[in-house]
Amino acid sequence: MPTTIEAGLSDIIKAVGLLQIAYRRDFTEEQMDLYIQRLAMLNPVVVKAAILNLIDTSKFLPSIAEIKAECAKVSAAVQCVEYIPADEAWSMALQAAGSYGYEKGLETLPDNVKTVAKRFWQEICYDNVGNIPLMRAHFMRAYAAEEERREEATRIGAAISASPALAKARSNALPLQKRILELVEAKTME
Asked: Is the pLDDT confidence value at 151 over 80?
C-alpha cells in the first residue's frame, strides 16, 4: 500500500502528464523530473486543479512559475482568502492611506495586505513623493515573501494533517505552546 507521500507524488506525475497530453509535447526525462521536483511539495489536488485551469486558459505550455502562481490562486480560493497580486495590494494600501488616513486606513485593508502594509504604514501615509518607487519596491518584495510564507504554512499544514502521527504531535504541542505564550505575556506584564 503506497504511503501518503507516494500517492501524492503519483498524483503530481499524473497532473504533469496532463500537460504533455494537452500541449502534444513529450517531456524529456529531465524536464519531467524538474516539473515533478518543483511541484512535489505542493498539495497534489491543488496542483491538478491549477494545471487544468492553465490548460483551459493558456495557449502555450505553462512554466513551473506559472503553475505555482495558479496554485496560489487555487489555494487562496479554497481557503476563502482573496488572492491579491502584489501590485494590486500596493495600490490598495496607497488608496486606503489617501482615503482614510493614518488612523483608519489599515482597518479597511484585507488581512493579507494589512500584514505587510503595517510595516510600511507610516511611510505610505506621510512620506514625500520622491520615495514612492523605492517604497513600492520594498512593499512588493515584502508582500511576495509574505505570500510565500503563507503558501508554505498551508503546504506544511496539509502535510501535517495528512500524517496521523504528525497531527497527533501537533495537537499535543498546541496546548503547550498556548501555555508558553501565556507565561511570556504574564512575564512582560510584570
From this structure: no
The answer to whether 89 touches 60, Cβ cutoff 8 Å, is no
Q: What is the mean pLDDT of residues 96-117?
A: 90
By the 10 Å C-beta count (0-12 exposed, 13-18 middle, 19+ buried), 146 is classed as middle
Q: Are 79 and 94 in contact (CB under 8 A)?
A: no
* C-beta of residue 38 within 8 angstroms of C-beta of residue 74: no
Among 114, 117, 122, 125, which Cα is nearest to 81's? 114
102 sits in which H/E element = helix 86-104
CB 126 within 8 A of CB 102: yes
Give the whole-angstrom CA distance, residue 177 versus residue 125: 36
pTM of the entire predicted model:
0.51
Angle between helices 29-39 and 4-22 (to 10 degrees): 130
Contact 43, 9 (CB under 8 A): no
- Encode pLDDT of 16-68 as tens digits: 999 999 999 888 999 999 999 889 888 888 899 999 999 998 899 999 999 99
139 within 8 A of 93, measured Cβ to Cβ: yes
The whole-angstrom separation of Cα 172 and Cα 175 is 6
Q: Residue 41 and residue 35: Cα distance in Å, rounded?
A: 11
State the Cα torsion 9-11-16-19 to the nearest 10°. Answer: 180
